[in-house]
# Entry
Amino acid sequence: MIALVDVNNFYASAEVLFEPSLAGKPLVVLSNNDGCVVARSPEAKALGINMGDPWFQLRADAQRWGLVKRSSNYQLYADLSERVMLLLARHSLGQEVYSIDECFLLPPDGTPAEQVRWARRLKATVARNVGLPVSIGIAGSKTRAKIATEAAKKLPATGGVVHWDQTPEGYWERLMEALPVTEVWGIAGRLAKRLEAMGIATVAQLRNADPVAIRDRFSVVQMRTVLELNGFPAIPLEDEVATKQQILVSRSFPDRIYDPEVVGAAVAEFAQRASRRLRKEGEVAGRLTVFATTSPHRPGPTHHVSAHVRLAVPTHQPGPLAAAARASLVPKLLPGMPYMRAGILCLDLAPEGAVPILPGVIEQPAPIGELIDAVNARFGHRTLALGRSGTHSPAPWATRQADLSPRYTTDWDELRTVS
# Structure
């Protein structure tokens, strides 16, 4: 059996944890620059607020609804996630961290009733030691465990724990016939549309499909999903996280930027951030995709542009990455166009040193990235950087977080105090 543990409404629950007065109120957590909704409390969901809704469209009704907003506090969320995952690992036979708020666990052997008792103790342990609510689904495969967890979240009578083998006869059949296929783990977007074109619109219809035909039409990944829905564990628990396939650094701007050179300076800074993440992972990038776009939510002219760069030498050094990103994107930008978002995607990642370079064939950049990392580790974040990123004057693309909660668990100056 496999258990999936999911922190309920994670970002919103993290905000309520340190500000209990928010409990029971409609609360949304917004993306970078307070742009769009990325998390909702149950009360906000009840108002019909959807993930991705832009704040400027909700602002007019916020006071009437009593809607509260918070800026994303990623440092707080990351710390709370680590606490939850470490705690869960101590109470299971195996763990695979799937996302910041979800992980798969191997429950102890036993009857369904014994495993449910284990899950309830685990739920209480997380609530007592970290303070966050979790839901737990237990089943014979990852995909079924995911469905069981969703049932645990949406059915209060379950107490937040559902075991696939402890439900009334016919329950799962009725549920899968009612659920759209997009409720299946990994089914969304174009894949869902292709399935619907084949007459597969519900979870039950996907479960009943021929797995070999699904493999031939799509891939072995979707075939495994069909097998998992039928109770055959085809996606094993991974106790080692695979190497990242790509690294993305992007941001929405607080205000529209009309100058291509300023957008270029922004992507150069994003490239430096990406280079730091590459060094942290011990990887180099061989290819870049750089992009900028206008807002899809605001009236006016639109422009979506991207550039693709093959690097002469795979690298994680900030200089070559920033120079390549800026030089490839700026000539494609239109002066006077109101750009609202830009970013850089690092691709063709490989472990550092895995791609040998013949000495003298191509000039190697100076390894200043490690120097920048060492200085910043000793004297503080952003003490040293390249170009405009090395100055302390506010950049036009700097993150706007008007309603940022304190970093309660990671900053001595922002610890919760009791008087």
